[in-house]
Amino acid sequence: MKTDWAAALAIAAMLAAGSAVAQTSAAPPAARTAASVETLDYVVQRGDTLIDLATAYMHRPLDYRRVQRENRVANPRRLAIGRTLALPVDLLRADPDEARIAGFRGAATLNQDGRSAAPAPGQTVREGAVLTTGANAFVRLALSDGSHVVVPSNSRVRVSRLRRYAINGAVDHALTVEAGRAESRVTPRRRPGGFAIRTPVSVSAVRGTDFRVSFDDDADRSSTEVLEGAVAIASGQAETLAAADQGVSAAAGAVRLLPLLPAPALARPDAPQTQAQVAFDIQPLPGAERYRGRVAQDAGMIEAFSEADSAPGGPLVFGEMEEGAFFLRLTALSPEGLEGKSTTYSFIRARNGVGGLASALDQRDRRRFYRFRWEAEGVGAATFRFQLWREAEDGTVDGPLLVDQPGLTDEAFTLSDLPPGVYSWRVQGARHRFGRLLEAWSEPQQLRIGR
């Protein structure tokens, strides 16, 4: 697939500047015409000649002839100071630029210069490098102009272009999402620089914005979601513009412009995560096919370390997690594969539970002693509350609580001479963590006592 990059960048620049351009599936004819002669204005300085400019800033010294012809310069060695020349961008030389690894978590690899190894913070990344992440792995790439790209879990991204124009230092960068996703926050760039993310079926081009790109190999479909600014997306001969809160699904040379889904909400946003597995219940959102969550140590998701998806109606499960104060970023995905707007929650992860429940009978001096035991789960001192009640034949509670004993510090409690019958018992664990009182009940256990 061959895409006119200049046209895509021109479209994005016009929309970002507030130009009243219609959002259609094909680039306007004016944009395509302008792209074929894209130029950079250069103001002549004292001592400039066309030959010197070509030697310093263009691919070949003889490129001055085209500049002379298109600008109608009579003498290439005599230029009027202050005159503006239109320099064709395709003649301008772009030298190699570099990026660096700003951070990473989990199983990630950097394939560069014929070697594949785990990335290192601060490591230089050059054009042609490939970043690969496994499950719950993230790599953050810092570009030379302050832009950042995050490669989330289960992704493979190639650094396909890192260049800097010799004439004015404008940077021109491009990535290729070969599998999975890439999330970018691009600082505004001077012409003729730009930023683009390719997939096998599309190109998303900008000069400054916040957007995400993903590629689904099974569906042969790419998705672009714009969070801030504007993005021009091209697939085959089709092109379209996406503004903030819009997304584009591209497949088989066709593009669909759609609004992004709103951010979903947690069912219990203030509840601490105390169980063995970290899991969140999500309020149903119309139009959502899946939900996605990302957990990080900071609200900006720079130190992200875990990610999970869930189907509607089911919990968003992350599994085991160390204790601490964390942040959850929550999004919804549409049937077209577009990831919607996000919301971020803070939450406390502090293990607090009661497990290993067991009961034993000890007969002494013609008396029956029933010893109930359990194990505290979590960090720090805990207190316990023991409850026991009688069950009816249908399994429901038969009468009031027979025992309700709070303030226990031992992981055991003994009762004697319980009458025959069916009982249920449970234990609550309570502890103070991160400035909060955490309380959690065990599952009820049944106890049958015969005559």
Automatic annotation (TrEMBL):
Keywords: Signal. The keyword DNA repair does not apply. It comes from the Bacteria. Residues 130-231 form the FecR protein domain. CDD domains: LysM (cd00118). The keyword Heme does not apply. Residues 1-22 form the signal peptide. Residues 42-88 form the LysM domain. InterPro entries: FecR, Ig-like_fold, LysM, LysM_dom_sf, UCP029644. PANTHER family: LIPL45-RELATED LIPOPROTEIN-RELATED (PTHR38731). This is FecR protein.
